[in-house]
Amino acid sequence: MSQSFLALNSHTAAAEAPLSSAAAHWLAQQGVMAAQAHAIPGDASGRRYWRLPPGLVFMDAPPPEDILPFLRVQHRFARAALPVPRVLAAQIDPGFVLLEDLGHDDLKGVLDAGSDVDRWMQRAMTLVLNLQQAGQRQAALPPLPFFSPARLQDELILFTDWYLGRHLGLIPSPQQRITLQTLFTGLLDNAAAQPQVWVHRDFHARNLIIRRDTDLLAMIDFQDAVLGPWTYDLASLLWDRYWDWGRAQRDAWALDFLAAHQHGVTLSSPTDFLRRVGRMALQRNLKILGIFCRLAYRDGKSGYLDFLPRFWAYVVDALDADPLLQSYQELFALWQPPLPGR
């Protein structure tokens, strides 16, 4: 999962730091004057961003950040005619990138406004499909990293170590660990059984920019893209941190996605598909609970704890919605987040 969430207001301090002299010098070499640089607030990683006239964004990603994954994915996506910002200049060391500025407006802004929500969500799902189909057409390009079962398992361990262990201060009993690993194995099997496609891996409303020139969606923060399960980005979009659309609406959008493209998957019924999506979302939401706790306790970004109740509600709903997962409800009832102030 990418940890670059632009414009997350609780993390503005790092972004408001002035440009370094080295960055200003490098920009001058590109013919760009840094005097009018305006910090773009918010980032959960060590990357920082500035907006520069005319129509430029500067990324400063000092070690241990690494801009190579970003550049490699951008090259693949641009070659596949996917909507991503153009890279105008880059220097691997110390980690400078000059990018096309796609604009100030993201999908979250239009969804917050409540206008044409369905139309914009349909556009976002179409972009997921375009991404997947582009990957199938670009077989000659070097492959993206494989989102292997081992990597998915490592993500789930974040829930055990950081949500249960650090946030709740709990050590599951041996039987609880066995039960939890049985659940994890089922979620990994669900992911492995799906067609493997290009996956953005953090496909949410803040990472979808409405291009000022076309009024269409473009992607940012794609540096962690992988070859992975075809329902992953759909789950990222529908189980969002900012809005709980509710099960009925999520199901309706998921079935719209299925109707648009089935990837040749043999499904017994629409219900079968919804369960596949729900299990993929459960894997991701358990991981997010762990990551947000790690950001809070290891990195001092406590604002992420505010999102825990929503993602916990997603977990509870997923267990309730799937008959094969309902047996885990009693175990998870022991692990709900503490109430505020306790």
Following the backbone from N to C, one meets helices and strands in this order, namely HEEEHEEHHHHEEEEHHHHH
Number of helices: 11
Percentage of β-strand residues: 5-15%
Number of strands: 9
Span between N and C termini?
Answer: 30 Å
Describe the structure.
The protein is α+β, with helices and mostly antiparallel strands. 45% of the residues lie in helices and 11% in strands. The protein has 11 helices and 9 strands. The strands form 3 sheets. A 5-stranded antiparallel sheet has the order 1-2-3-5-4, covered by helices on one side. Strands 6-9 form a two-stranded antiparallel sheet. A two-stranded antiparallel ribbon has the order 7-8. A hairpin with a 3-residue loop joins strand 2 and strand 3. It is globular. The two termini are 30 Å apart. The N terminus is likely disordered.
Write the layout of secondary structure elements.
Blueprint: H1 21-29, E1 38-40, E2 48-52, E3 56-60, H2 68-79, E4 87-91, E5 96-100, H3 107-113, H4 117-137, H5 149-167, H6 174-192, E6 196-199, E7 208-210, E8 217-219, E9 226-229, H7 232-238, H8 247-260, H9 270-297, H10 308-321, H11 329-333
